[in-house]
Amino acid sequence: MWREFFGPKARIIGIDLNPNAKKWEEHGFEIYIGSQSDESFWNDFKKKIGLIDVVLDDGGHTYEQQIITTEMLINNINDGGILVVEDTHTSYMQNFGPMKYSFIEYTKNMIDLINQRFSKLDHSNSEKRIWSVYIFESIVAFSVNKKATALLSEPTKNNGEDDAAEDFRHADSVAISTIDTASRKLNMLKLVPGAKVIARRLRTLLINRNFKARRYFR
Length: 218
Prior knowledge:
It is built from 7 helices and 6 strands. It is an alpha/beta fold. It is elongated, with a radius of gyration of 25 Å.
């Protein structure tokens, strides 16, 4: 199937823990025997293979296997390439690892780190190996675009006319607008020790209590 899809000149490499998989070499494929959760195996593999265009992880589907495979190979993906992990529904099933560290939880963390690239955030620990993440049912795909990832993520200005428009972003949130108004009126409280911490906690408490979109989280 992959030969038909990628064409006769494609270099197709298979990895399996079962030594019997070597039988596919007679059909023109390269087969390596090893564990996808073994980092030393991957290091040796990368030295032999070099850069890769597409990785398709359809292995044992444990969280450890999926995460280690992604971490070990993402830097070996050619620019414009992709790493695809299949059967990620195991992240919601028992006996594939500690669900606190499931592959989907790892992917959520990756999404957080991608958004940390924004210049106004602390981007010292942001994710710069991949450009984007595609989520499908039972599939997660990581796309590599080094030129795009290297761009400085910062706000852009259209240099239009500044008409000193009032900021209405919190106008429909009574809790936030009330607190902000009170904060401006009681500006002198900033000189009181601990006042900022108390105000911040009160703000968070009122915002959480009045958050109307809570019902959309299941």
